[in-house]
Design goal:
This protein is mainly alpha-helical and 123 residues long. The chain contains five helices and two strands; from the N terminus they run αααββαα. Strands 1-2 form a two-stranded antiparallel sheet. It is elongated and about 60 Å long. The model has no long low-confidence stretch (mean pLDDT 93).
Length: 123
């Protein structure tokens, strides 16, 4: 992982963990790497790694088993998908609808364009 300068490292680490949960790299109830493993692998201060992981603890996405390590919470993937869907709506759908209205497109025309996008993507 290469860190970007414009965003604090602990936030980038938290986002990387969220991506891992969403992608299935860290399934629910599985153990995530330790603070030490993160700090060594990414050459960051252990306090920085802890701060990033604690964000996920605060959100209920991971939990600590005393003396064992940190684990992905049951339901974490579903929570993250819900958050991402809402962000997708706010970031993309609202803007697209506003632009479609400016262009005089109907909902049916926008739907057809979206379907075309899925077809061209091949999925």
């Amino acid at each position: 992982m290469t860190f970007q300068e414009e965003l604090p490292i602990f936030l980038q680490l938290a986002e990387q963990l969220k991506e891992g949960i969403l992608s299935g790299a860290y399934p629910e109830e599985s153990q995530i790497p330790s603070i030490t493993e993160y700090s060594v692998a990414y050459k960051i201060n252990p306090a920085t790694a802890l701060k990033g992981i604690n964000l996920l603890v605060d959100e209920g996405l991971v939990y600590k088993k005393r003396g064992v390590g940190m684990f992905v919470s049951s339901g974490a993937r579903e929570v993250l998908q819900g958050q991402r869907r809402e962000r997708f709506y706010e970031d993309y759908v609202e803007r697209a609808v506003r632009e479609a209205k400016n262009l005089g497109l109907t909902a049916a025309e926008v739907t057809a364009l979206i379907e075309r996008g899925f077809e061209e993507d091949g999925h």
